[in-house]
UniProtKB/TrEMBL annotation:
Keywords: Membrane, Phosphoprotein, Sugar transport, Transmembrane, Transmembrane helix, Transport, Vacuole. Belongs to the major facilitator superfamily. Sugar transporter (TC 2.A.1.1) family. The chain crosses the membrane at residues 43-62, 74-92, 98-121, 133-157, 163-185, 528-550, 562-583, 595-616, 628-648, 654-677. It holds the Pfam family Sugar_tr. The lineage of its organism: Eukaryota, Viridiplantae, Streptophyta, Embryophyta, Tracheophyta. Its main location: membrane. PANTHER family: PROTON MYO-INOSITOL COTRANSPORTER, SUGAR TRANSPORTER. This is Monosaccharide-sensing protein 2. It catalyses: sucrose(out) + H(+)(in) = sucrose(in) + H(+)(out); D-glucose(out) + H(+)(in) = D-glucose(in) + H(+)(out). GO terms for molecular function: transmembrane transporter activity. Residues 310-320 have a biased composition (Basic and acidic residues). GO terms for cellular component: plant-type vacuole membrane.
Length: 707
């Protein structure tokens, strides 16, 4: 997975530039005010800071559509160029009007980077470390702030600090970022698949995953093009065919799904659990219907998946599927099979009407060691992609079709007899071993009518070119699962911004100066301005190990757990800051309390509420509308950012530092309640599986309302 890690690190440099710019303007605005005599014009001062936010907002309105049309990589290249050009113009700026134009261009680059870097990383990262890699933008952003504050502090010690040089230095890392985006970053494989460029997508995946066989993930990416509809949860009991045969009514044999073992003649059967609806399944696993009725059923549904999951890698597969590129690499026209099925001797006697899960093939139920590369149809996080052929009586006789199945072993108590998981690789399970599994079943995004008419024994399915050519549709936004995801994403972005973090960061030197930090460092001979820059540098330095801890925990504890555990600390820090500002404990005590409270607030913010909203927004939307939905969330982010940043000076003058942080504490409490009630856990799940869960969860919410 080193390829995916290096790509994520290179992409995250775009956020380093954003952090660098945020800190530089926070420091240089003090000198800009003096040169342009803006002390009596706080509106112009606020506009200089907010102009980049206006630019980011403007570009965000079209960034999603442009990234869907042109690709993720070209937009990141444009972002790096905008950073570079804007830094040169700021270096030149002869007057405030040119400076405003430069800040606008800078905002365009920031908007593209902030919107598309998390999207790009999510689409290239494997599920097991997606949270870690998508926390990199927060880490690099804070690192950029640290380097910038160190530069500004050093320049503040000069007799005549130049704000133009402070802002113009951004051109150097911008050039590095441009070189990386142009020469190193590949295009997102999910975007390539959405445009029908299958061979390119496969080569990118092989590079990112470090292995040749990626046909299973290729199939997953194609399935991700469809917005989940009619998704249902089904429960299966999986075991040797000869054992389950005696436990089931022969008339229900048609509902069995056949799984093939590694030895000739050996097979397992997946038997649907009788009378178990999706609501009943979730109720048994985690009580979907909570007593208060306040917690979103979707939260409980996601939570049930993470309860006592087996600590294993993905399912291992045999070699009876051929890769699509093996037949001449002629797949860019979407006319060659994505996954080609070679009929085995086990298949020849299967009647046409018999259901089978042929992609769950040899050794499919034997788990390898944790971290083992997935095989052809292993899709990460222990999930398996498969297809089920089913038939029903229709007006013109029997009608059949494929259904897509995402299957994973249930980790709940009593889910296994004989511990299939503990078996060494390749060993055939012994009699008496039964595995309990849960599956998400829905309509597939790819199928072929001619194959369906032939009654195939396996899903040798061809992706129709018209599906690839079809772009995002606004109507897809009204699908229940997408609407639900948008509510979560937009809600998190609003609450994150109104917790005040970006406004505080932009004005950190002034806030700390007002808090009296100059007194703490006066004995060192530093002025109040230089002291505030030094405190800001130390604060951002302390953020880095906190973010490193969050990176480690993001895929272990999970996004939801980190939010629920860090937001209360934010509230406590803000309340202490309020009390320290209201109660006169002496200059030294008040300055110490203010500084410590701000540092604690920043450090725990970057562990949870900082990176997680962007991580979740990059995970919960279907591929075809992901760019559009993320643009909506990012637009919400920037609008709220402008409001917070532009109004902060006015709020400081009207209600003071204590009042401002008191308001932020109230917002953080509301945010904790929102996360507890509405935000699900997505760690370790493939993006396409997350989408399906949102679909079935939204359906269950509607059913609950109607009942």
């Amino acid at each position: 997975m080193s390829g995916a890690v290096l790509v994520a690190v290179a992409a995250a440099i775009g956020n380093l530039l954003q952090g660098w710019d945020n800190a530089t303007i926070a420091g240089s605005i003090l000198y800009i005010k003096k040169e342009f005599q803006l002390e009596s014009e706080p509106t112009v001062e606020g506009l200089i800071v907010a102009m980049s936010l206006i630019g980011a907002t403007v570009v965000t309105t079209c960034s999603g559509a442009l990234s869907d049309l042109l690709g993720r990589r070209p937009m990141l290249i444009i972002s790096s160029l905008l950073y570079f050009v804007s830094s040169l113009v700021m270096l030149w700026s002869p007057n405030v009007y040119i400076l405003l134009i430069a800040r606008l261009l800078d905002g365009l680059g920031i908007g593209l980077a902030v919107t598309l870097v998390p999207l790009y990383i999510s689409e290239t990262a494997p599920p097991e470390i997606r949270g870690l890699l998508n926390t990199l933008p927060q880490f690099t952003g804070s690192a950029g702030m640290f380097f910038s504050y160190c530069m500004v502090f050093g320049m503040s010690l000069m007799k005549a600090p130049s704000w133009r040089i402070m802002l113009g230095v951004l051109s150097i890392p911008s050039l590095i970022y441009f070189a990386l985006t142009l020469l190193f970053l590949p295009e997102s494989p999910r975007w390539l698949v959405s445009k029908g460029r299958m061979l390119e997508a496969k080569k990118v995946l092989q590079s990112l995953r470090g292995r040749e066989d990626v046909s299973g993930e290729m199939a997953l990416l194609v399935e991700g093009l469809g917005v989940g509809v009619d998704t249902a949860i089904e429960e299966y009991i999986v075991g040797p065919a000869n054992e389950l045969a005696g436990e089931e009514d022969p008339s229900r044999e048609k509902d069995h799904i056949k799984l093939y073992g590694p030895d000739q003649g050996q097979s397992w059967v997946a038997r649907p659990v009788a009378g178990q609806s999706s609501v009943g399944l979730v109720s048994r696993k985690g009580s979907m219907a909570n007593p208060s009725g306040l917690v979103d059923p979707l939260v409980t549904l996601f939570g049930s998946i993470h309860e006592k999951l087996p600590e294993t890698g993905s399912m291992r597969k045999g070699d009876d599927y051929a890769s699509d590129a093996a037949a001449g690499d002629s797949d860019d026209n979407l006319q060659s099979p994505l996954i080609s099925r070679q009929t085995t001797s086990l298949d020849k006697d299967i009647p046409r009407g018999h259901s089978n899960l042929s992609s769950m093939r040899q050794g499919s139920l034997l788990h390898g060691n944790a971290g083992e590369p997935t095989g052809s149809t292993g899709i990460g996080g222990g999930w398996q992609l498969a297809w089920k052929w089913s038939e029903r009586e229709g007006p013109d006789g029997k009608e059949g079709g494929f259904k897509r199945i995402y299957l994973r072993q249930d980790g709940g108590p009593g889910s296994t007899r004989g511990s299939v998981v503990s078996l060494p690789g390749g060993d055939l399970p012994t009699d008496g071993e039964i595995v309990q599994a849960a599956a998400l079943v829905s309509q597939p995004a790819l199928y072929n009518k001619e194959l369906m008419q032939q009654g195939p024994v396996g899903p040798a399915m061809i992706h129709p070119s018209e599906t690839a050519a079809k772009g995002p549709s606004w109507s897809d936004l009204f699908e229940p699962g997408v609407k639900h995801a948008l509510m979560v994403g937009v809600g998190l972005q609003i609450l994150q911004q109104f917790s005040g973090i970006n406004g505080v960061l932009y004005y950190t030197p002034q806030i700390l100066e007002q808090a009296g930090v100059g007194y703490l460092l006066s004995n060192l001979g530093l002025g109040s301005t230089s002291s505030s820059f030094l405190i800001s540098a130390v604060t951002t330095l302390l953020m880095l190990p906190c973010i490193a801890v969050a990176m480690r925990l993001m895929d272990i504890s999970g996004r939801r757990t980190l939010l629920l555990s860090t937001i209360p600390i934010l509230i406590a820090a803000l309340l202490i800051l309020v009390l320290g500002s209201l109660v006169d404990l002496g200059t030294t005590a008040n300055a110490s309390i203010s500084t410590i409270s701000v540092i604690v607030y920043f450090c725990f913010f970057v562990m949870g509420f900082g990176p997680i909203p962007n991580i979740l927004c990059a995970e919960i939307f279907p591929t075809r509308v992901r760019g559009l939905c993320i643009a909506i969330c990012a637009l919400t982010f920037w609008i709220c950012d402008i409001i917070v940043t532009y109004t902060l000076p006015v709020m400081l003058n009207s209600v003071g530092l204590a009042g401002v942080f008191g308001i932020y504490a109230v917002v953080c409490f509301i945010a904790w309640v929102f996360v507890f009630l509405k935000v699900p856990e997505t760690k370790g799940m493939p993006l396409e599986v997350i989408i399906e869960f949102f679909s079935v969860g939204a359906k269950q919410v509607d059913d609950t309302k109607h009942n």
